[in-house]
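// run 5 | inverse folding | seed 20
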């Protein structure tokens, strides 16, 4: 079964849910803020997605971090930040079982 990782306040996540609903694919939803992100789940994402691709530097959370936290954000620091602040993970993430798709644009899920 597909798993869609979202933030309920995210407009793009709502569009992704609507696309999956209209396609009829069964899926489960994991809300990153409410359900959290474990180290194991983050590592699962990172098997398919490079760490710096997964880190959302355009998020409000990133902008609100102190400069000292953002300075020299390498892979290890990015992991720590995403575990501490799950809203730093780019979303939506769709886990198909074989791959993890990051983000959503109209038509992205048409080939599922």
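// decoded
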């Amino acid at each position: 079964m597909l798993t869609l990782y979202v933030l309920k306040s995210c407009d793009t996540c709502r569009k992704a849910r609507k696309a999956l609903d209209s396609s009829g694919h069964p899926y489960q939803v994991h809300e990153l803020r409410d359900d959290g992100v474990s180290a194991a789940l983050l590592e699962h994402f990172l098997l398919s997605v490079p760490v710096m691709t997964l880190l959302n530097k355009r998020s409000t959370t990133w902008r609100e971090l102190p400069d000292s936290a953002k300075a020299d954000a390498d892979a290890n620091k990015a992991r720590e930040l995403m575990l501490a602040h799950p809203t730093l993970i780019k979303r939506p993430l769709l886990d198909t079982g074989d791959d993890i798709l990051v983000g959503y644009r109209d038509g992205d899920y048409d080939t599922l």
